[in-house]
Amino acid sequence: MKKLMYLGMGALIMFSSCQNGEHNKMTMEKPLARKDAKELVTHGDKRVDDYFWMRLSDEQKNAETPDGQTQEVLDYLNAENAYTEQVMEHTAPLQQKLYDEIIARIQQTDQSVPVRKNGYWYYSRYEEGMDYAFNCRKKDTDGATEEVMLNQNVMSEGLSYFAVGGQAVSPDNKLLVYGVDTVSRRQYTLFVKNLATGELLKDVLENTTGGATWANDNKTIFYTTKDPVTLRSNKIFKHVLGTDQSKDKLVYEESDETYNTFVYKTKSDKYLMIGSSQTLSTEFRFLDANTPNGEWKVIQPREEDMIYSVSHFGKDFYITTNWDAKNFRLMKTPVNKTTKDNWTEVIAHRDNVLLEGIEIFKKFLVVSEMKEGLSEIRVINWRTNDEYYMEFNDPAYMAYVSANPEFDTEILRYGYTSLTTPNSTFDYNMVTKEQELLKQQEIMDPNFSPENYASERVMVEVRDGVKVPVSMVYRKGMERTGKNPLLLYAYGSYGSSTDPYFSSVRLSLLDRGFIFAIAHVRGGQEMGRHWYEDGKLLKKMNTFNDFIDCGKYLVDEKYTSSDHLYAYGGSAGGLLMGGIINMDPELWNGVVAAVPFVDVVSTMLDESIPLTTGEFDEWGNPKNEEYYHYMKSYSPYDNIERKAYPNLLITTGYWDSQVQYWEPAKWIAKLRAYKTDDNLLMMDCNMDVGHGGASGRFKRYKEIALMYAFFLDLEDIKE
Fold first, then answer.
1. How far from 320 is each of 346, 383, 688, CA to CA, in Å?
2. Residue ranges, CATH 3.40.50.1820, the chain
């Protein structure tokens, strides 16, 4: 069916001779989408959407033969792609060079650090020239041979998109359940493989979230399915091997449309857990993993504005919660008395420290925290209550607890990276404090050295007096002349913190003189829970203002200038990009908005769209008039004006289930109709993928090469 997407473009495309900077060549006319005014009235307020017709249903997209509307949409998307390709044609050698050097830095024959569980070492590895991983294991015995559980290179043959979801080995180590997505809609099919014979069992489970959880009997699995329209994960089923999916028992259905549900097993392997969550509330129920046909029991009934998560140790559940604790605290409760009136405090709430999570070992409790925008790892001895913090020295860094499935060990597996330090995996002895570097990302460039780069962290006072952290990295020797090209990145939503990590890809910009900076704006959670709460709902405007003010600071302090300042963000960060070019378009020379959430009001009014109902606590419900008008005040699509905009590159995926393709498609069409400048305005719509972009190890770098070439071309950097 997808081959039809590339037909029928002639009606939309005309050619003319035009000038493009120094490049005089035959260039396509800018694609102009048909206008068909649709009046949208909410709370007595009228909006007119000229491009509402671009929205297609899933049935239309999946039809073998496209109807007239579908063909018109496909023609328009392909016209935009052809226009982008033509405008950027002169950068094709640069794009290829960028792609080649990015790929050249990757260690092509590579292997992850093995993780031990239940008598086996598990790891994934890549072979030179191959796009996908081999998922492998070895017995924890001398001379054990490798067992290839999944060869994704063979599995992906002939597919334009391929992704493996969760993988879970049965308690007796004999069977593997795994998920596969070949469309990029994040709807996975589960398969079960006999690891001794290599054969697939007849069990095939459709429309799942990609993972499954084994009961301890080695024949029962629990899995989550999605609503076929909204893609909300709403049902938990129990499947017994050897039976048809139609016979599976529904063990839990989440009827509240603002919640999603999921299932997992505790690290102790003692309990199965079903969780339900929305932005501001959670609820968990548990079942003894030895009795999969038993009755599930609720730990603590859901309450508004109360979040908690559950771990198990001994006779108790350990509960991380924001109950009477904005930045979270740690509680415990007996397994047989789980409601919050039985909870006792283990770690108290602190105003200046965010408790992010815990890892339980037999002798130690490891706590992940965030303080003043930096991650910290705290180790507590269960018996003595002695504790200490691990030490990290970079001005901006990311330290995180890695995979630790073993319970009875003194060794903590953790990861560390910074803007100048490649990702590193350590084994850390929690008794002696000695550590062993197991693996550091190898940069396959003989000229690379961390010593060539410097990082710094500044606090920017924004318009309301709050100080926002900005992390930066650049080649040593950078001088603040105001002429440096600088790329500023942020996300700023869902309480998702943007950690300052190393990127070998980013070297292609740094080595050409760019500064890369992260604005840790409100809407994330870097500075604590209040940082998130002050960047959502009726305070969302802080996210946009913070980013703009950080950009102005970098100009004022002569790190760069408006002629050399660039911005990038994706998804909710794409919303941020749409907002800042409406609010302060002259500050930026170029902007890239990836899979951008830009038609905020219309999307949040439509509860049939995936994610909408679960995000009312993030953006607000526009059926409430106050939220409607506030949302409309910043929605990028609704605030386009007749004025000059910076150079803009938009990327999207036709099969995106998170931010539907029609949002960026409508956005670029309206921008082209309204803007008064001659700056670049382009969209690259990948017709084969969804929200996460291309699958495989290398294809995604084609998209990055295009983005980098866009920035470099604006700087007149040709190679």
1. 10, 20, 40
2. 1-10+32-87+576-696
Starting at the edge strand that comes first in sequence, how are the strands of the sheet with 411-418 ordered? 397-401, 411-418, 424-429, 435-440
What residues are labeled active site? 571, 656, 691
More confident residue, 168 or 228: 168
Q: How confident is the model at residue 652 (pLDDT cuts 50, 70, 90)?
A: very high
pLDDT for 186 beyond 90: no
For residue 639, give Cα distances in angstroms to 47, 570, 593: 11, 19, 16
Give the CA dihedral 123, 129, 132, 137, nearest 10 degrees: -20
Run of H or E including 104: helix 92-104
Average pLDDT over residues 323-342: 97
How far is residue 313 CA from its own chain's centroid? 31
Distance between CA 608 and CA 619 in Å, rounded?
17
What does the alpha-carbon distance between residue 516 and residue 396 come to, in Å, rounded to a whole number?
13
Q: How many CB atoms lie within 10 A of CB 64?
A: 6
Would the pLDDT of 697 be above 80?
no
Taking the C-alpha atoms of residue 648 and residue 594, their distance in angstroms, rounded to an integer, is 11
Mean pLDDT computed over 13-30: 44
Burial class (CB in 10 A: 0-12, 13-18, 19+), 637: buried
CB 473 within 8 A of CB 455: yes
- As a whole number of angstroms, the distance between CA 719 and CA 717 comes to 6
Q: What is the DSSP letter of 512?
A: T
In the block, residue with structure tokens 């924001």:
322
Name the nearest CA neighbour of 289 among 312, 272, 314, 266: 272
Strands (E), 232-325: 233-240, 249-253, 260-265, 271-278, 281-288, 297-298, 308-313, 316-321
Cα distance between residue 302 and residue 179, in whole Å? 30
Residue 123: C-alpha distances to residues 175, 268, 334, 343, 708 (Å)? 17, 21, 36, 38, 32
Predicted confidence (pLDDT) per residue in 580-629, tens digit: 999 999 999 999 999 999 999 999 999 887 778 788 999 999 999 999 99
- Nearest one of 504, 541, 717 to 629, comparing CA atoms: 541
| Contact by Cβ (8 Å): 312, 516 | no
Cβ atoms of 573 and 592 within 8 Å: the answer is no
Q: 452 vs 41, 348, 477, 521, 636, CA distance in Å? A: 57, 43, 9, 28, 39
Cα–Cα dist 280/615, whole Å: 10
d(CA 603, CA 52): 11
Which DSSP string do the residues of 636-684 spell out, in sequence order?
A: TGGG--SS---EEEEEEETT-SSS-THHHHHHHHHHHHH--S---EEEE
Q: How many CB atoms are closer than 10 A to CB 394? A: 18
| Unique residue bearing structure tokens 């965010």 | 354
How far apart are the two ends of the chain, measured CA to CA in Å?
38
Q: How confident is the model at residue 19 (pLDDT cuts 50, 70, 90)?
A: very low
> 423 falls in which pLDDT band (50, 70, 90)?
very high
Model pLDDT, residue 694: 57
Name the CATH code of domain 1-10+32-87+576-696 (choices 3.30.420.40, 3.30.160.20, 3.60.10.10, 3.40.50.1820).
Answer: 3.40.50.1820
Rg (CA), the chain: 26
Distance CA 569, CA 547 (A): 11
- pLDDT for res 183: 81
Task: Give the C-alpha separation, 309 to 538, whole Å.
Answer: 27
